[in-house]
Amino acid sequence: CALPISIIDPADLSRSLDWEAGQLSFDNEPLPAAVERMNRYSREKLRLGDPSLKTMRINGVFSAGDMESFVEGVSALYGLNMTRKDGQMVLTRG
Q1: Which position has the higher pLDDT, 89 or 11?
Q2: What are the φ/ψ torsions at residue 9 (nearest 5 degrees)?
Q3: How many CA atoms lie within 13 A of 21 on its CB side?
Q4: Is residue 4 packed enough to be buried (19+ CB in 10 Å), middle (13-18) or exposed (0-12)?
Q5: What confidence score (pLDDT) does residue 3 get?
Q6: pLDDT class for 19, splitting at 50, 70, 90?
Q7: Is 68 or 15 the better-scoring residue by pLDDT?
Q8: Which of 5, 25, 40, 91 could be disulfide-bonded to 18 (CB atoms 3.0-4.6 Å)?
Q9: Residues 6+ positions from 19 with CB-CB distance below 8 Å
């Protein structure tokens, strides 16, 4: 019975240090994963209102919990709109 092979990636030291400083670092991360990480630290939650946004990738460093800045940056970069609905922020195509 062969054992499965595991691959361990080296730790990303800069990303770890960003987190310790209250920053969330994204390096070509899918937008849904970035939104999920940002939602962990924010009172106001963000959701994607358009399935086509799932293919977008995010690069950058944002303050954990600062959803307004995250939304502003992503919206400016990709020409998205944010509306508030049912107590959440919703991103859609512009």
Answers
A1: 89
A2: -80, 145
A3: 12
A4: exposed
A5: 65
A6: low
A7: 68
A8: 25
A9: 25, 64
Question: Tokens 């939650």, residue?
Answer: 45
Name the token pair of 44: 């106001």
Higher pLDDT, residue 5 or 17: 5
Instruction: Give yes or no for a contact between 45 and 8, defined as CB atoms under 8 angstroms apart.
Output: no
pLDDT of the residue at 64: 94
pTM of the predicted structure, to 2 decimals: 0.78
The two three-digit tokens of residue 89, written as one number? 């922020």
- The long-range contacts involving 56-59, CB below 8 angstroms and separated by at least 24 positions, are 56/30, 56/31, 57/28, 57/29, 57/30, 57/31, 58/26, 58/28, 58/29, 58/30, 58/31, 58/34, 59/26, 59/27, 59/28, 59/29
Q: What does the DSSP 8-state code read for residue 67?
A: H
Tokens of 3: 């054992």
Distance CA(45)–CA(43), nearest Å, equals 6
C-alpha distance from residue 23 to each of 45, 67, 90, 92 (Å) = 17, 12, 22, 25
